[in-house]
UniProtKB/TrEMBL annotation:
Pfam families in the record: Acyl-ACP_TE, Acyl-ACP_TE_C
GO MF, one annotated term: fatty acyl-[ACP] hydrolase activity
Family statement drawn from the similarity comment of this UniProt entry: Belongs to the acyl-ACP thioesterase family.
Protein name, per record: Acyl-[acyl-carrier-protein] thioesterase
Source organism of this protein record: Lactococcus hircilactis
Record-annotated Acyl-ACP thioesterase-like C-terminal domain positions: 156-239
InterPro entries, per the entry: Acyl-ACP_TE_C, Acyl-ACP_thioesterase_NHD, FATA/B, HotDog_dom_sf
Domain Acyl-ACP thioesterase N-terminal hotdog: 4-132
Keywords per UniProt: Fatty acid biosynthesis, Fatty acid metabolism, Hydrolase, Lipid biosynthesis, Lipid metabolism, Transit peptide
Length: 240
């Protein structure tokens, strides 16, 4: 099932929202940081992958189950484990727990390796993932099903320009930014009285500097459906 890695973490002011709760985008950013720290400890840092294969890691799917969001100044423990992989996809889980060991947030994620020049998905070399002790599997884990772009015809929309500050070291929009863009389409009163219970995110195409993001929003009950750039990124949020 893979080697486990964990870190204690205190939620800082700058990762907390208006209601002192840790932002979802911050959860995702910290999860990426923790997974990167494990990779460094195992001798498979981003630099190593780049120098030996000219690849970089990219997350293509997230699924979050939220019992309670961490709050400002709370001490939590974040644990991650690269669970399994096949020829093209690698699967990694994260858990966020409070000081008493109670589960706050669970994240399941799917990763791919991309060539730095061609920007195409490459096969997973055993040499890259061997130190994680993940299980090699033949099946592909079935992804979440989202509403297609056609369903959003006539839905409300907002346009966001991609700024330099939105980019990460791989040259494309940092994956945590999409959730903020999606949620910014929802009005303040709803956000003040609801919080996410379950979130599914799928990144189908990377977005580069100079592009614009066109986000569309559709509500079905207490589930908000977000479509960015005609299925480029799809997000579904169940609220409570």
């Amino acid at each position: 099932m893979g080697i486990r890695y964990q870190q204690d973490y205190i939620v800082p002011f700058y990762e907390s929202d208006r209601f002192k709760k840790m932002r979802i985008s911050s959860l995702l950013a910290v999860a990426l940081q923790i997974s990167g720290e494990q990779s460094v400890s195992l001798g498979r840092s981003d630099v190593w992958v780049s120098e030996h294969y000219h690849y970089f890691w990219a997350v293509i799917e997230y699924e979050l189950d939220i019992t309670r969001l961490p709050v400002f100044s709370e001490k939590i423990t974040i644990e991650t484990q690269a669970t399994s992989y096949n020829n093209f996809f690698c699967y990694r889980n994260f858990t966020f727990k409070d000081e008493n060991g109670n589960l706050l947030v669970e994240i399941k994620s799917t990763w791919v390796l991309m060539d730095q020049e061609s920007r195409k998905i490459e096969r997973v070399a055993d040499d890259i993932v061997a130190p994680y002790a993940s299980d090699k599997i033949s099946k592909i884990i079935r992804p979440h099903k989202f509403l297609k772009a056609e369903v959003f015809e006539g839905a409300s929309q907002v346009r966001y320009p991609v700024r330099f500050s939105d980019l990460d070291m791989n040259g494309h929009v940092n994956n945590a930014k999409y959730f903020d863009w999606a949620c910014d389409m929802i009005d303040f009163d709803f956000r003040a009285t609801h919080e996410p219970k379950h979130i599914a995110i799928k990144y189908n195409h990377e977005v580069l500097f100079g592009d614009d993001i066109v986000g569309k929003l559709l509500f079905k009950g207490l589930v908000s459906h977000h479509n960015l750039n005609h299925d480029s990124t799809q997000i579904e949020i169940e609220w409570k």
